[in-house]
Design a protein that fits this description.
75 residues, mainly beta, 5-stranded antiparallel sheet, two-stranded antiparallel ribbon, binds zinc ion
Length: 75
């Protein structure tokens, strides 16, 4: 079960959050978690989600709830 969150004024599922970070839809997604750190751009609350954009890749992504900032653990 994934819990919906409000991101930039829109209600998103974990799948939609991963899509916002990745820029395209992803294969598999875990539930949304709270990020350990606030957004480095605006200081707003950031969310974390682990997802699989493809069968061979596991990515941790972060997205601010208030602004356009997002980040992944890719190099
Ligand atoms: Zn922000």
């Amino acid at each position: 079960m994934s819990e919906n969150r409000v991101v930039q004024g829109r209600m998103v599922t974990a799948g939609k959050l991963a899509e916002l970070i990745e820029g395209e839809s992803v294969m598999e997604v875990d539930s949304i978690e709270e990020a350990d750190e606030p957004c480095p751009d605006c200081g707003g609350n950031a969310l974390k989600v682990v997802y699989m954009p493809s069968v061979t890749e596991l990515v941790t992504g972060w997205k601010c709830q208030d602004c356009d900032w997002s980040e992944t653990d890719r190099d």
